[in-house]
């Protein structure tokens, strides 16, 4: 299988992704025996709950220091020292110091909701694919609501993919009033490009949550969290019905890589040039929480 390449906004260069569990992932999605195991066990919630439980065991603390070293994480960003985490899961959904992820102060700017690798679709009605040309998931299936999908059919979308090595809390991309998170149950396939290149519909059928964020400049923004293999849970930490500021924490994923999807009403957002350029090449852009993903574009009709 091909290596996974992404564009690092901060380095200004294309990088090769160092995949956690690479051999297991390629065996599962790239061999006949692996695919049997995938459908018999790996995609099932029980497997991910079991793995998440394993990561809650005190003995997993010994994995933290080697993980930090292997993936070159900056421990100075952490709210807690590495030796203070009770188990690997606590380290995995760690909080960061506020100074580690400053929020773009420009009121016209919308910010990335998560650390990770991002792809954008400026117009869902004219999308030629995400990871592979011509391959796009079904919006009504993703939203579980045909009427809602019709409203956003010509809207804009941001897919943010979090690797196991990333900071795993997700945030509000804009200020507004969030409603409750609605759960849509489904299986738990991997959301790594190795899997998505084979079946992009994984994003539309995996277990997911959806929240409507009512904003002043962007209309109603749909915020989704997508579960994945070995994600022990999607936890919401915000208070539905209470106003939030841009960059406020919304929740976190327990162990495993996962994704968020942000969907904007038609004509509401102008994505940043580097994000549009890399997405057009079907290459993800690496960027962090709080940095600009684009700017609001007010409707001419008010």
TrEMBL record:
One Pfam match: PS_Dcarbxylase
Record carries keyword Lyase: yes
Single GO BP term: phospholipid biosynthetic process
Class in the EC hierarchy, top level: lyase
Transmembrane spans: none
EC annotation from Swiss-Prot or TrEMBL: 4.1.1.65
InterPro entries noted in UniProt: PS_Dcarbxylase
GO MF terms, alphabetically ordered: phosphatidylserine decarboxylase activity
Keywords: Decarboxylase, Lyase, Pyruvate, Zymogen
Name this polypeptide is given: Phosphatidylserine decarboxylase proenzyme
This protein's encoding gene: psd
